[in-house]
Amino acid sequence: MEEYIKRLLQEGDEVINSRIPSGSKLIVDLVDSIRYNKWVMNCISFLAAEAPEHVNQIKAIYNPQYNIFDHAKQIYAVVYSAGEYLEHKRSQSGTQKQATNLFNLDHLHPKIREKCEDHFLSGKFDDAVLNACKVVEVYTRELANLKETDIGVNLMMKAFTPDKPILKYSEVKGEQEALMFLFAGFIGVFKNPQSHRFIDIKDPAVAFEVLNFANQLCRILEQTKTINP
What we know:
This protein is an all-alpha fold. It has helices at 3-17, 33-47, 52-61, 69-100, 110-121, 125-144, 152-160, 173-196, 204-221, and strands at residues 167-168, 225-226.
């Protein structure tokens, strides 16, 4: 468990042990008010970034005007739950990192590795896929000597159009047309959705396959011949 969680629990033990019995069943028991309020503020401060839902639970229980023993016990339980939650979160993160390490990225085109490797290995699969798509888009635009305003599917249709290609791949019109649709389809299927919403890819294998698709397209680009329009 995180050290700061242990410290919060230790402070919570001290608060609970400061119980002040009322001596009556009709009056609630209290705890040391200074120690209690300081502890709750520490809990809120330390957990705000990583366990906001638990902080909301603490705030729902806590009333600074009353230092009630039962409230202190409830908050202690929330802090303990936050500790278990964060421990599980760290464990899941470690498992994901181990999973990404099973994939070898050494074969990828240097442009793909430069823009995607760090994102992939850190589990940011949406970012890795989006960057791979942008690599293909930018690389196509550069080779075709087109403008920054030439983007997306329209860029691919313009660069590979079989009637008057800027990037020529084949003398066979059908093959040139197929390549145009291949590049346009890649951008339409994988880049456009990533550009407009969060896909939230969880499976590293899915991202790895898209990176390999982009890799193949980069290799194809290197086989094209630029025809000045």
